[in-house]
From TrEMBL, chains A, B:
Residues 4-61 form the HTH lysR-type domain. This is LysR family transcriptional regulator. It comes from Streptomyces albiaxialis. Pfam families: HTH_1, LysR_substrate. Transmembrane segments: none annotated. InterPro entries: LysR_HTH_N, LysR_subst-bd, WH-like_DNA-bd_sf, WH_DNA-bd_sf. Keywords: DNA-binding, Transcription, Transcription regulation. Belongs to the LysR transcriptional regulatory family.
Amino acid sequence: MHELETRELRYFVAVAEELHFGRAAERLGIAQPPLSRAVRQLERRLGVRLLDRDRRGVALTEAGGVLLREARAALDAVAAAARRTRRAGDPKRPLVLVTKAGASHELLRGLLGALAEEPGAAPVEVLLCEVGEQAGLLRDGRADVALMHRPYDDLAGFDTEDLYVEGQIALLPAGHPLASRERLTLAEVSDVPDLPIARWPRLDGTYPDGPGPEVHTQSQLAQLVALGRTLLVIPASSRAWQWPGHVAVPVVDAPDVTTVLAWPPKSHSPALASLVRAASCLRPPVTGRHD
Amino acid sequence: MHELETRELRYFVAVAEELHFGRAAERLGIAQPPLSRAVRQLERRLGVRLLDRDRRGVALTEAGGVLLREARAALDAVAAAARRTRRAGDPKRPLVLVTKAGASHELLRGLLGALAEEPGAAPVEVLLCEVGEQAGLLRDGRADVALMHRPYDDLAGFDTEDLYVEGQIALLPAGHPLASRERLTLAEVSDVPDLPIARWPRLDGTYPDGPGPEVHTQSQLAQLVALGRTLLVIPASSRAWQWPGHVAVPVVDAPDVTTVLAWPPKSHSPALASLVRAASCLRPPVTGRHD
DNA sequence: ACGTTGTGATACCCGCCGGGTATCAGGACG
DNA sequence: CGTCCTGATACCCGGCGGGTATCACAACGT
C-alpha cells in the first residue's frame, strides 16, 4: 500500500474546492481525465468514498470533508517545510512578521523600536495582510510570527504571548445622533437603522445574517466607512481608522481585545526568540499606557 | 518548479536519520543510487545544500536540520490526513484515547465511567504507549485525544483541558533509610548515592548527565524499581507503581503535575466534543478528591 | 607502497505510471 | 429527440523512478 503523495492531495483539494472536475483540472493545468483517474485512485487507496458524483456536479461526502480539512493542513505543512528550509539556507534571512494592515500601529512601532535596541538585532520584514490571513501565512511558512487579536483570530495550534489588552470603540460620522454620546453599548450600536454593522466572514468563510454590507478586505471597509455607510466597532488603539469627520465612542460592553504575538510551536530560530523576549519586556509600559 | 512530494521528504528523513545512504536505502527498501539521486534533486529544487558529504559519512547542514524537523511534521500531517479520512468513512469508528501506560488510572476510570453515563455514548478505545509518545500519535492521526502531563509532556500545538493537579511522591524500598521520613525534598532525593534517579530522554532525545541508569520504556523502569536499583519521583496518583516492599513519601518541593486532556486543534468530531464535555464536568469532584 | 574496504556518485537501461487526446454514457434541458 | 454538459473510459506515449554495474576516492590495513 503506497503512501499518499502531495500531488494526490493537491488534486483532491482542487476538486473539493471547485466541486467540478473540469474547472479543477483547468486550475491545476492538466486535463480532466487524468484528474478523474487520480481522485478515483485516491479513493481506492483510502478505501473511502470521498465524492458523491451526482451526474450533475459533485458533492463532498463526510469523509471527503475530513480529507479536505486535513489535506489543506498537510499541504501547508509541506509548503512550510520547503519555505523554511530555503530560508534557513539564506544567510541574511530576515524574520517575517505579519499583521493585519491598519491594526496595532503603535504597538508594532514600539516592538520594532525595542528590537532595534537589542544587540543581535535580526532584521525584521513586516508583511501586511487582510483579516484572518495571518494563521495561513504562519502555517505555510510564509511568515515566522504574527500579531493577532483574541478573540477574533484563530489562534489554534500556535504558541502565543499576550501583549496588550484594550476595549473597543464605535466609529461614527461626526454628525450622527450617537456621535455625541459619552459611551455606548453593543445593543445600541448593533441596531442602528441607517448605519448597519458590516458583516465579516466567519472562520469557516460564511457570512452571518444581517442588514449590513458583506466585506472581506480592509480597503472595502475603509471605503464604506468613509462614505458613512457602515458603523464600525474596533479596538481602541486602531486610531489609524480615524478619518476626518468621524469620532470614536467607547463601547463599554464590547469584549476586550487582546493583541497577541503568535508563532508556530517548536520554532527554534534565535531571531524569533529575541523578538519574543523584546515583546515580553515591552509589555508592561505598553499596557500601562492603556490606562 | 515542481512541488515537493512526500516521497522525497521520506527519503530525506531516512538519510538524515541514518546519516548513511546505504542504510537509509535499505530501510526504504530501494537501492542506494536512486536515493542519492533523489536527495540531490531535492537539494537542487530547494536551492539549498542539505547534507555535507564527507567521503566518510554524512552530516546535516543547518538547513538540513530545519528540513528534518519540518519534514517530520509534514509527513505526520499527511499520515494524519490518510488515517483520519479512513476512520471518517468507518461508520462505527471508536474514539482513540492514548495515555502513558500506568499513569492516571483512577482518573481514566472516572472519565470512561462518566462518558458511559452520557446518552450518545461513543465507544472509546484506550491505547497505551510509552512516555513521550502521545504527541506523535496525536499528530499523525493514530489517536484522537490524549491524557498528558504538564510540565513533562510536550503540549505545543494542541488544545488542552486541565483535569487534575497533584503533587509528587518518591518511591523507595521499604527498608531504605529515607523510607521512614514523613516528607522529602528534591535536594534530598536527587543525591542519594545508592539510589540514583533514572534518566529519561529529553524532548530532543538526548539524555541528561548523571549517575542513574538511562531508561526509555516503562517496563525497564519497573524492573529497575523492583530490583531496588533506582529512585522514582512520580505523581501521587500513580499508585499502580506500588509494588510490595516499596513505600511512597511526598516530595514537597517537586513541581505539581497537571493531568490534561489534549487533542489536535480544529477537531470537529462530536465524539471528541462529548468526551471533553464529560471530562470538564468530571473535573470538580476529581480535584476535590485531591485534598 | 599497495591492495582492501567502504563510502557516495555516475552511467545506463527498463518498466510503470502520470499525462495527453479521443470518445463514451447518461441526465437536464429546450 | 437532439444538444449540452457532466464525469468515466480507452488508449497511447514520454519521462521519471527504480534497478544493476561501475567508478572515484579516502582511510585503513598489512
